[in-house]
Design brief:
Layout lengths: L1 H17 L7 H5 L5 E3 L5 H15 L9 H12 L1 E5 L51 E4 L5 E5 L4
Antiparallel strand pairs: 1-2, 2-4, 3-4
């Protein structure tokens, strides 16, 4: 009986931890209700074209990472990304995009976003985002009102 109770407590704790939103308050998340500029809202042909272009940029010197199997995974990752233009980012405590390392092993010339952020051409493959978490993730694009949202993988 004692082991069963401990097991239930442990499972409940795991459920609570897995469903927390990385410390983001519900107020912060609800403040991001404006329309999304989503990469994933594009049709399949556009998404496929962007996936090829984005992967070629990131894996320029490593063509072995641009095969069909890899492209399927990259498309899946790109599909998880939404770009939100918030009315204001004041008071939001999301991490900055500049804190995420670049995936520049196969392209040492890769550079991050600057103050001229272009949501239509944002390449999420350039960053070492974790696409396999149990919670949505949010990142502020430095010096802009844009927020990158990475949805959990279903």
């Amino acid at each position: 009986m004692k082991n069963r109770t401990l097991s239930l407590i442990l499972l409940g704790s795991i459920f609570i931890i897995a469903n927390t939103n990385l410390g983001y308050s519900q107020r912060e998340i609800k403040s991001l209700n404006p329309p999304k500029s989503s990469i994933s809202n594009q049709n399949n042909s556009e998404l496929h074209s962007k996936t090829i272009a984005f992967s070629n940029e990131v894996y320029r010197d490593c063509p072995e990472y641009t095969t069909t199997d890899f492209l399927k995974e990259y498309s899946s990752q790109i599909f998880q990304v939404d770009i939100i233009k918030a009315p204001s980012t004041e008071g939001l405590t999301f991490p900055s995009l500049s804190t995420i390392p670049l995936r520049n092993k196969c392209n040492p010339d890769l550079i991050g976003e600057d103050e001229n952020f272009d949501s239509a051409n944002f390449n999420p493959l350039k960053y070492m985002f974790n696409y396999y978490t149990y919670t949505d993730q949010y990142f502020l694009v430095d010096n802009t009102n844009y927020v990158i949202h990475i949805a959990i993988k279903h």
